[in-house]
Amino acid sequence: MRELSFDLTVQPWITVEIDGTERELSLREVFTRAGEVRRITGDLPTQEFALLRLLLAIAHDAVDGPKDIDHWVGLRDDPRCFDVVSEYLEAHRGRFDLLDAQAPFFQTAGLRTAKDEVSSLNRIVADVPNGEPFLSARLPAVDRLSFAEAARWVVHTHAFDTSGIKSGMVGDARAKGGKVYPLGVGWAGCLGGVFVEGRDLRETLLLNLVAADTSSIPDGGGQDLPVWRREPDGPQGRERTPAGLRDLYTWQSRRLRLHADADGVHGVVLGYGDPLAARNMHTREPMTAWRRSQAQEKKHGEPLVYMPREHDPARSAWRGLGSMIADRVQNQPDASGVSPYLRPGILDWVARLVTRRKLSKGFLVRARIVGTVYGTQQSVIEEAVDDHLTMDVILLHEQDREAAQQAIDAVGDAERAVNTLGDLATDLTRAAGSENTSSRQVARDRGFGELEGPYRAWLAALGEADDPLDARAEWQAQAHTIISRLGREMITGAGDAAWQGRTVTSKQGDVWLNSGLAERWFQARLRSCLGQTFPPDLPSDTNGTAEPSLKVHA
User: Fold this and answer.
1) Which helix (H) or strand (E) holds 86?
2) In the chain, which residues fall in CATH 1.10.132.100?
């Protein structure tokens, strides 16, 4: 019987976008045609993230670096810098066979349970978590995958697999009664994933290729090896710390083995692999923002703990701009000098390139955010997060922080302006005598939705502004126009009951609140929160958020 083989170095399996069309390329083709490829596409955004990290591990190892910024510049300036990857892949070709009998790619040969159970492919296809449809037309189960599809999902499984009770593997001491109890999701599933996207895949790879002399990333001391340059894993997981980025980007958080025949893959054996705690991994993992966790500090008795800052699917990327571009100083350290948040290390790296003038003002990059939202004790995937922000790299300059600060403050302007719209909705509801409690959130959602496009456009152009303060004033005027228009529409649609009004209790006592007074309060608050640059409608209070000092009786 002929032994099965699917060589990932020459067989097409990575889905990419070229000239507006989607196609599959082999590993060699991805690198030789990186300048033609717009981006990796993948079956899910999270698959794109996982595959990019795989390609970065290959690139880091093939070029053995970059060792420092000068090495990086040499790569950037050489249009054939990734030609070396073909020779590298040939040298390690034996470890890139998806179906190899002794060392299958990203798998454990001979992996089995005590009862030799083989699970459905639903276990690794993330758009059908536990048999429930998510983002796929596959219903109700995945019976078979092509070798190319299976390869993509194998990489994704190590990165984003769910937690929960899994089968115990023969040879794994953690198995109790044939089961291994929850050890957490795949490593990338712990992150609020962030990477920098360029104009094509070549530029994307280079922008995310962090130099070995970067202070926040360990160089590994020669031990930083991708999984294909290590001895094949057995069923037993190991508790250890990643030696560097090549190790981390190919982290084997699971043990799995595909079952296949000549027509494709029809089953999988899946168990836990190498656990990796997220606590204080900010010195090793560059593709996420971080937040200080006092709860974790108390739990582990440590003076300072940072945890990955996961994405909120209800919050667009532009509203979280501060956590991505603010450095430690801008993140307002407390009295002890500790920053509550840290931006992603990958943006620290780009900031270093900008500050050293290796990327010039006017160079636009997209900060892509990708992540998962898990449910039911992390045993299912509920939602995938995918968003981006296009910005001028000057926002990341370490010495010239003014543009970044104005960009962050402009988000604050938007937050406060939207709050005034929510206040107006509440006042109109009170004036009409309604008990509708959802009107405030509906108004806020609409406000953020209307401001999002203009803010993104303003942000992309901010680097070209002569004076960031003047640009901020222009944004405030634009936000004022948008929110004022929405307010007028809400007032017009409030109806006769709100127009007539009623007596309500306020901080200043009883007032006759109707849509006319609600509008005057709204304009006063809006003018206050966006600066005193607009014609006064009504004197505001000291902070622009409380009701103005006005009492009206019927």
Assistant:
1) helix 84-91
2) 403-529
- The DSSP secondary-structure symbol of 169 reads B
Cβ count near 485 (within 10 Å): 11
Angle between helices 147-160 and 45-63 (to 10 degrees): 90
pLDDT at 335: 66
Query: CATH topology for 403-529?
Result: Topoisomerase I; Chain A, domain 4 (1.10.132)
The span from the CA of 426 to the CA of 534, in Å, is 24
pLDDT attached to residue 540: 38
The closest alpha carbon to 247, from 268, 234, 233, belongs to 233
Q: How far is CA 177 from CA 123, 168, 170, 180, 235, in A?
A: 21, 8, 11, 8, 16
Amino acid at 447: G
DSSP state of 97: B
Query: What ranges in 231-344 are assigned the alpha helix state H?
Result: 245-249, 294-300, 321-325
Residue type at position 13: W
- Which residues have a Cβ under 8 Å from the Cβ of 532 and sit 6 or more positions away? none
d(CA 471, CA 245): 39
Residues 124/161, Cβ–Cβ less than 8 Å: yes
Q: Using alpha carbons only, give the angle 462, 465, 469 rounded to the nearest 5 degrees.
A: 85
Predicted local distance difference test score (pLDDT) of residue 546? 45
Nearest to 391 by CA among 409, 418, 366: 366
Q: List the structure tokens of 531.
A: 């600066």
Give residue 126's pLDDT: 85
What is the spatial distance between Cα 483 and Cα 523, in angstroms, rounded to a whole number?
Answer: 10
Q: Name the residue among 60, 53, 51, 4 with its Cα closest to residue 26.
A: 51
Distance, in Å, from the CA atom of 109 to the CA atom of 113, rounded to the nearest integer, reads 13
Q: Are 249 and 57 in contact (CB under 8 A)?
A: yes
Residue-wise pLDDT tens digits, 410-448: 999 999 999 999 999 999 999 999 988 899 999 999 999
CB atoms within 10 A of CB 90: 12
- pLDDT tens-digit map of 323-349: 899 876 667 667 677 899 999 999 999
Place of tokens 């943006």: 347
